[in-house]
Amino acid sequence: MREVMIDKVTLNIGVGKGGQELENAKMLLERLSGAKAVPTKAKSRNPVFRIKKGDVIGTKTTLRGKAALEFLKKALKVKDYSLPSGSFDKDGNFSFGVPEYIEFPGAKYDPQIGMLGFDVCVTLRRRGFRVGKRRRGKSKVGRKHRLKKEDGIQFARNVLSVKVE
User: Fold this and answer.
1) What is the CATH classification number for the domain harbouring 154?
2) 44-87 residue pLDDT tens
3) What gap in Å lies between CA 21 and CA 19, rounded to an integer?
4) Which structural domain, as residue segments, surrounds residue 124?
5) Into how many domains does the chain fold?
6) What is the pLDDT of residue 112?
7) DSSP assignment of 57-106, as one string?
């Protein structure tokens, strides 16, 4: 029950507006991950960038299981298996960005898409976390069972062979 595992890997591209750029970002995520990409909407308005609440401004996809682990290992190759400790949050989850998709192993430049980068967010969990999310009989996860930043760093070092600075 104390084993730390990957719950999900979320890939995100924020474009800032709809149209052809958003379609290119969606196509890129689907090509890299092999999973369907869904649009993301603005949570608040920002008049400086002419964004209204509910506008489609990006796209994301979620990977789980073996596909998530395989994709994560490829994505970490871009970062030379090195992450700063600031990439980890208080719950042990971590995220990093890939500045240009052509750095990703196996990806070739497509002039129709142009140059785009994406974010990789990794959510970690232990067995038994379902009790906090289930619909029926929901209860709190105990303090000792919750993940901490140190647990996430230890997982990244041991399982993913990441050097944390």
Assistant:
1) 3.30.1440.10
2) 888 888 888 888 889 999 999 999 999 999 899 988 899 998 99
3) 6
4) 4-164
5) 1
6) 83
7) EEEEEEE-THHHHHHHHHHHHHTTTEE-GGGB-TTS-EEEEES-GGGSTT
